Structure formats: structure tokens, C-alpha cells
Amino acid sequence: MTWQAGRLAFLLTVSLCVTSYGEKVHKHTEKDSSRGVEEQFIDVRDASGTYVHHGPYTAFYIATKSKAAAGHYRYGVKHGKWESWYASGRIKQTCTYINGMASGVQTDYYENGKVQNRTGYEQGLPHGEFTQFYDDGRLREHGTYVNGLPEGEWTIWYQNGKKQEEGAYRAGQRQGIWVTWFETGQKRDETTYRDGLKEGTFTSWRPEGFRWTQGEYRSGHKEGTWTTWNQIGLIEKEEQYSNDKLVESDNN
Questions:
Q1: What is the pLDDT, as a whole number, of residue 109?
Q2: Which of 80, 193, 198, 207 shows a CA-CA span of 20 to 30 A to 8?
Q3: Known SUPFAM superfamilies for this protein (predicted)?
Q4: Distances in Å between the alpha carbon of 23 and those of 30, 47, 159?
């Protein structure tokens, strides 16, 4: 059989069993209607005798015949460079795997070709710099992961370039002062965290810049006097909390 004829048989046959170097190799072409793709892959027996994916993998969109994904398996797990595409043919994601675990930088794209996310990976976990963009290319979010958990300073921006939220993580938990802003750039609220729980003074402001509410948190619960001001800066009400429960309210 010629190479061309063999290739044609592979494309038309649902499952083809051949023997290579004494090892049975099953070449498959399967349709996955739920994802709208046709997959081509190879199965071989692993050490336990179970058939697993091994070698090149390719998927095509059934409707457009364009490539949907491509990569390699090594005895049942992804290994090496993997890519996926939108039905339009534009790149969707690139990632590298080592023995089934994501490694290096994974890049996700919008269909317009702009980068959506860049995420560092190590041994299958987010590790290193994370950056997210809006579909016009403007920066949306930036931070760092360590062993799958957010660590250090983290910032989120509005699409107009002004900050939306900023603070720090320690071992995946919010720590210290976190600040949020309105899209105008006016500060919205300021919260202090300790090991992921709100702790200490909380203050919020109205869009016009006037202070709105202020009170204390203790281990994530409202505690003591909480004050609310009206739009002209006068006290509107004062409330007393104990372990997050309202125990007294004084409306002015």
C-alpha cells in the first residue's frame, strides 16, 4: 500500500489496528458531536496493558474542517506543545505540557487575535506572572502565583486604564489594605485584611467623594459603632454591632 493510500484509509476508517515493532497500535478517527469536532489519535497499550493515547493528536471542526486542536500524548498524558484554534482559524490557546502537567507560559487569545491571558505554570499549577488584557489590548489584571495561589501585589484596572482594585495576597489570602475605586478614579472603599478576613477599619466613599460609611471588623465580623453619612456630609445613622449582628440603631 502506498503512503497516500494508507493515509486515505486512515481518514476513512473509524479504527485501524496495525502492529509496529511488536506493539499493537490503534489509529482512531472519532466525531465528538458535543464539541462539534472530529478527533484523530493513536492508542497503544501502557505498562498495565490498558490502551491509552500516545503520539500525535489532532481535532478538526466538523462544520468548517479547520483545525481545532493539535498536540502530542505520551502514554496517556499530554506532553509537549499543544495549540487550539477558533473555528475561524485564529489561534485560541498555546500551552506546553511535561508528562501531563502544564509548564511554562500558557497564552489565551481573543478571537480578534489579541492576547487575553498569559499565565505561568510549573508542574501543572499556576506559578509566576499572571497578566490579563481586555479585547482591545489594554491591561486588565496583573499579579503573581506561587504554587497555584495568588501571592504579593495584585491589581485590576478598568478598561479606561484607571485602577479598579489593588491589594496584596499572602499564601492565597488577602492581607493588609485593599482599595477599590470607581471608574472615575474616585476611591470607593478601603478594607484591611488579616489572613483573608476583614480586620480593622473599613471606610467607603460616595461617587462624589464624600465619606459614606465607616466601621470596624473583627475576624471578618462587624463590631462596634458603624456610621453612615448623607450626601452633604452629615451623620445619617449610627449602628452598633456585636459579632456581625445589629444590636442597636440610631437614625438621625
A1: 99
A2: 80
A3: Histone H3 K4-specific methyltransferase SET7/9 N-terminal domain
A4: 22, 12, 56
